[in-house]
YneQ (Peribacillus castrilensis), 97 residues
Amino acid sequence: MAFGIKRVDVVAWKQKIDQGQIAFLTHYWLDDRFPGCKTVTKVGCKDLRRLAEWGKQYGLKKEWIHHRKDGYSHFDLLGDKQAYILRAEDIEERLLD
């Protein structure tokens, strides 16, 4: 279940994706499959080759891209990997308490 996210943030994320940029969207999220994880960061780009190359530097496999028919395909970042990548990208302020 996703919550704590504003429509304006989703719109901005989609606009960046549409422009071919690597775009980040972090929100609260609860799923019993991932105990201890309370947030997820979606990292998307319309250029799937570029997205896969970006993910490769962090050990993410292109097979892990969540392919969406609406064009907003993305990686889902959780837990320690999420924190590591957001710090490496110098956007750790997106880490929610």
About this structure: The longest helix spans residues 7-18. The chain has one domain: 2-94. The beta strands are 2-3, 23-29, 39-44, 74-77.
